[in-house]
Amino acid sequence: MQSPSRSIPIFLIVLVVAIAVVNELADKYYWYWQVRWFDMPMHFSGGVWIAGMASWWFFYRQAATSVRFSKILATCLVA
Question: Are 19 and 45 in contact (CB under 8 A)?
């Protein structure tokens, strides 16, 4: 069995870059003030990124051998 990669998944890198770009555009064009609900998807995206990083940090980076789904879910919810 192959050990999981210790590098950060490309999805998490792309997500944090997308969040940064959209946030910069939102600040420049005042989307947070003009579009009342705009901060909701931004907060959700940030939460997905934090949960993904926590999951990667605790399980994949440390090369855990047997991980239950409930343990991963609990880690993501706590993060």
Answer: yes
Per-residue pLDDT tens over the stretch 50-69 = 999 998 888 876 666 677 88
Q: What is the pTM of this model?
A: 0.82
Query: How far is Cα 59 from Cα 53, in angstroms, rounded to an integer?
Result: 10
- Cβ atoms of 12 and 49 closer than 8 Å: yes
From the CB of residue 55, how many other CB atoms can be counted at a distance below 10 Å?
Answer: 20
67 with 50: CB under 8 angstroms? no
Q: How far apart are CA 39 and CA 32, in angstroms?
A: 6
